[in-house]
Amino acid sequence: MAVTLEQAQRVGYTCLKALLRFAFMVANNLVAIPSYVLYLIVLQPLRILDSKSFWYIEGVLFKWLLAMVASWGWWAGYTVVEWGDDVKAVSEDEAMVLVNHQATGDVCTLMMCLQDKGTVVRQMMWLMDHIFKYTNFGIVSLIHGDFFIRQGRTHRDQQLVLLKDHLEKYYRSRNRKWIVLFPEGGFLRKRRETSQAFAKKNNLPFLKHVTLPRLGATQVILKTLVAPQENGTPSSGDAVRKESKPKGLQWVIDTTIAYPKAEPIDIQTWILGYRQPTVTHVHYRIFPVKDVPTEPEALTNWLYQRFIEKEDLLTHFYETGAFPPPQGQTKAISREMTLSNLWLVAIQSFAFLSGGMWYCLFQYLYHCLF
């Protein structure tokens, strides 16, 4: 079949746009990530004198870096619509965020949709696959204090011990508030067949759009971060809880990401922008941590129930294009998440100006020394 001139022009435009976007992403990384590292090296005396202020500044720089990643998708027309509970209401409390995992674009989507949730982004900790440590963003996550977890049965017990130690050492000392993890332990396409075989063997529900979650990391986080007086203690009312602000994990935010036609966005698409503008849908449901069991069997059942609910949510979404309304309501309300182009341009400008400043400074020092 012959290719028309219009089709050739469209392909040429898409390739040129992808090439320019890739060049911009590379330049963005070359100035932003070294600048982040160098600013924090210069600020090491402040870390000794006033650790709280140091980690506040680091958090702001971290949020800006994530906003730059979000801008790559935002300017390609990849936007987010949010459903369910309003997580802004708990943005200043400690929370564990449980997310289904379909592709690398899930992380980019979260980087975007959490930008307008107060201080969440700069005070959050990520649990991610250890391979991420060796990417361009690995040094940033390493400094920020994210945890790189190695998958596989042979590493599981050791990794959970390391996670507990990591949380005790870094979570509170760096004033972290939210911790994000993907309990499925891998991408949907890689784990679905194994998960379905396990479900069949153990008489569990057959899941198509999610996989059965793993218990380990969730249990360690709950045991390590939930304050003893919070766990299992009846609430004395929202007003009292809001005033007292008890330390420890207070909420579990069940987050479900859905892509149109069940076609997830990967990191390559996010960077190159060759896919047509796409709206990703994110559904939140908030649970008080006091309602979450900590005993292994009960917690396993609770987690399974959350992912069975995710399956129902995603099935409804793929059939109707919308998430179902909350129980007892007749209509689901969605909220379009927006980012300020002016703010994104300002952050990008700061990154490139910083890169230029560090380059000039090193050039000057080089000429002075040599």
TrEMBL record:
The keyword DNA repair does not apply. Coiled coil: none annotated. InterPro entries: Acyltransf_C, Plipid/glycerol_acylTrfase. One of its GO terms (molecular function) is acyltransferase activity. SMART domains: PlsC (SM00563). Pfam families: Acyltransf_C, Acyltransferase. One of its GO terms (biological process) is phosphatidylinositol acyl-chain remodeling. Keywords: Acyltransferase, Lipid biosynthesis, Lipid metabolism, Membrane, Phospholipid biosynthesis, Phospholipid metabolism, Transferase, Transmembrane, Transmembrane helix. It comes from the Eukaryota. Residues 95-219 form the Phospholipid/glycerol acyltransferase domain. GO terms for cellular component: endoplasmic reticulum. The keyword Cell wall biogenesis/degradation does not apply. The chain crosses the membrane at residues 20-42, 54-75, 131-149, 342-366. Belongs to the 1-acyl-sn-glycerol-3-phosphate acyltransferase family. This is Lysophosphatidylglycerol acyltransferase 1. The lineage of its organism: Eukaryota, Metazoa, Chordata, Craniata, Vertebrata.
